[in-house]
């Protein structure tokens, strides 16, 4: 299926090279080509999700701070479109060269915990990684976005919904959305 998928965090180091190689380009400095797609440095996500803190799934001082990673998979010829209507929650980080990811979290008791969310990179998915079909599949690295929930109280049950903000998200599986349920017990 095409679309936004959750990724097993512990498998990331094996799937992504630790260093920029000749078969990838640093797209902060130059545009990709068919043979040399953008390099995605998985260590960038280490600022949000780390093995050292059990990815936030261990209780600390009565709270949890879990994180998860998402990527856009099997998108083929799909290319994100420019977004005109940006949700206020992500307007500060908006860059037209990116498709932002917007997440919100709500406790079963109705409390909105969206302000307890960090998304990294904050701009979302760079458009330079799309369309996937134009790149050599042997060297293409799927871009990722990490989401961290901060200080979720023990005993909380919450639902988190994240979506890619682009007018053509309807071409993606589940309209470019993922929904997760956390039980902080």
UniProtKB/TrEMBL annotation:
Keywords: Membrane, Signal-anchor, Transmembrane, Transmembrane helix. One of its GO terms (molecular function) is ATPase activator activity. It is a single-pass type II membrane protein. The keyword Transmembrane helix applies. GO terms for cellular component: sodium:potassium-exchanging ATPase complex. The keyword Membrane applies. Pfam families: Na_K-ATPase. It comes from the Eukaryota. One of its GO terms (biological process) is intracellular sodium ion homeostasis. InterPro entries: Na/K_ATPase_sub_beta, Na/K_ATPase_sub_beta_sf. It is found in: Membrane. PANTHER family: NA_K-ATPASE BETA SUBUNIT ISOFORM 4-RELATED, SODIUM/POTASSIUM-DEPENDENT ATPASE BETA SUBUNIT. Belongs to the X(+)/potassium ATPases subunit beta family. This is Uncharacterized protein. It comes from Araneus ventricosus (Orbweaver spider).
